[in-house]
């Protein structure tokens, strides 16, 4: 047995193991360490690190910003990978562009969460956008993402971006204006985390939907959507939103750094038309710069689900409420207090 060493455990705290090959550096250590994310009680996902850029606990959640060898800079909240520098474009293009491209003339966007700035960056690529409100509850997350995630510096400096530090639920309740697009770029619902109430039927029905304009579209990330993981929260989020909106579309994409297929749900009271050729034309007409992942064909294909996932969505009966929520594996700060 080797000497006892420090290992960065999935709950955001250090844990000492008596095995020499399991190590996590302090923030000034340069190499030889791994970060381990606990996907489930019998499954873990590890990343070789260059160094730890930041780790700590805010009022709301455990936070780590890691410099990894394979995926570049990685944001981890409550032990869960949120985004990775090399492939975050997949997640954020899928989150933002389908809703904006399906809207006839999107001018205003409200982003719930999104503290790293990537969702705002993608929304601001649309020439029609006049205002993006990004509302994140955790100032510490926003501050260190502004400091370290250089890809989003222009977005944070854009005059069209209105950055608000607040609970998105409270902020939407207090605002009188309506938005063309509302985006849920929230952390996954974990027990004791700050976000699960923003996945409930009452929130969608009583607070969010009244803040949408007449052609308004709501889109949210909806957690893992793989063959073995889609029953955790994805199917329930879909079924909950289906109780509130007339038209609902789900779509998925593989995100390498998540080690899984990811899901999104898009909803409106106006019908959607997803045509690959027309979507490509709309992208060319509306968006500044090139998208790295999304085009008309890939968006259309992403709405086609395998038999297992489709059957689960068809048969799902669970609806998110404050008293009956589903959580993915893991715990937030409040759970541990």
Automatic annotation (TrEMBL):
The active site is at residue 185. It comes from the Eukaryota. Coiled coil: none annotated. This is thermospermine synthase. CDD domains: AdoMet_MTases. Its EC number is 2.5.1.79. One of its GO terms (molecular function) is thermospermine synthase activity. InterPro entries: PABS, SAM-dependent_MTases_sf, Spermi_synthase, Spermidine_synt_N, Spermidine_synt_N_sf. GO terms for biological process: polyamine biosynthetic process. It comes from Escallonia herrerae. It catalyses: S-adenosyl 3-(methylsulfanyl)propylamine + spermidine = thermospermine + S-methyl-5'-thioadenosine + H(+). It is an enzyme of class 2 (transferase).
């Amino acid at each position: 047995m080797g000497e006892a060493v420090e290992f960065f455990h999935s709950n955001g705290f250090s844990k000492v193991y008596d095995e020499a090959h399991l190590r996590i550096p302090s923030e000034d250590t340069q190499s030889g360490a791994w970060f381990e994310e606990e996907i489930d009680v019998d499954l873990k996902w590890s990343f070789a690190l260059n160094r730890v850029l930041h780790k700590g606990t805010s009022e709301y959640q455990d936070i780590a910003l890691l410099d990894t060898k394979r995926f570049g800079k990685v944001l981890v909240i409550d032990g869960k990978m949120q985004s990775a520098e090399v492939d975050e474009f997949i997640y954020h293009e899928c989150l933002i562009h389908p809703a904006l491209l399906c809207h006839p003339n999107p001018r205003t966007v409200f982003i719930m969460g999104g503290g790293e700035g990537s969702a705002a960056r993608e929304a601001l690529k649309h020439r029609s956008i006049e205002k993006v409100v990004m509302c994140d509850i955790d100032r510490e997350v926003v501050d260190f993402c502004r400091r370290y995630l250089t890809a989003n510096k222009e977005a944070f400096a854009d005059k069209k971006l209105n950055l608000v530090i607040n609970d998105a639920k409270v902020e939407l309740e207090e605002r009188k204006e309506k938005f063309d697009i509302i985006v849920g770029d929230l952390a996954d619902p974990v027990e004791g985390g700050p976000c699960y109430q923003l996945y409930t039927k009452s929130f969608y029905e009583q607070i969010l939907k009244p803040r949408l304009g007449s052609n308004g579209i709501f889109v949210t990330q909806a957690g893992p959507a793989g063959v073995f993981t889609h029953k955790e929260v994805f199917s329930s989020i879909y079924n909950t939103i289906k109780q509130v909106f007339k038209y609902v579309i789900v779509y998925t994409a593989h995100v390498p750094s998540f080690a899984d297929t990811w899901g999104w749900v898009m909803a409106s009271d106006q019908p959607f038309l997803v045509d690959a050729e027309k979507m490509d034309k709309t992208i060319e007409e509306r968006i500044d710069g090139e998208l790295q992942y999304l085009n008309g064909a890939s968006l259309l294909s992403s709405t086609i689900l395998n038999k297992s996932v489709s059957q689960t969505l068809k048969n799902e009966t669970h609806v998110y409420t404050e008293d009956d929520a589903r959580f993915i594996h893991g715990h937030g700060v409040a759970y541990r207090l």
